[in-house]
Design brief:
Radius of gyration: 13 Å
Shape: globular
Order of helices and strands: HHHHH
Distance between the termini: 35 Å
Oligomer: single chain
Number of strands: 0
Number of domains: 1
Length: 101
């Protein structure tokens, strides 16, 4: 099996169980979205497609948990530091402002 497809499948599963509020994995989802949309694109086209496909799983299946949390919750200082990136160094690292939602 294609290892990239397996990675997408794994994240589809985790996004679905987080989307159903079975466990809290919102900061992992932010890191996934950051890899796909904020970091420099991979020179490997298959890897870049995988990153976008994985991010899409979280946007589709996890949005029922992510969006309300982004609108209503304030991360700790440590969480904000962990979620910063070169593209988004601001304090609102876990908010709809990050991706203009």
């Amino acid at each position: 099996m294609n290892p990239f497809r397996e990675w997408v499948n794994l994240h589809s599963f985790t996004a679905r169980i987080h989307g159903r509020n079975i466990f809290d994995e919102r900061f992992a989802a932010v890191r996934i979205l950051r890899d796909a949309f904020e970091n420099a694109p991979s020179k490997d086209a298959d890897l870049q497609k995988c990153r976008v496909d994985v991010a899409a799983q979280h946007m589709i299946y996890d949005c029922s948990q992510l969006l309300p949390a982004m609108r209503e919750e304030t991360p700790s200082d440590g969480e904000r530091r962990a979620l910063k990136s070169a593209t988004f160094p601001g304090d609102a690292t876990f908010s709809t402002d990050r991706w203009d939602l």
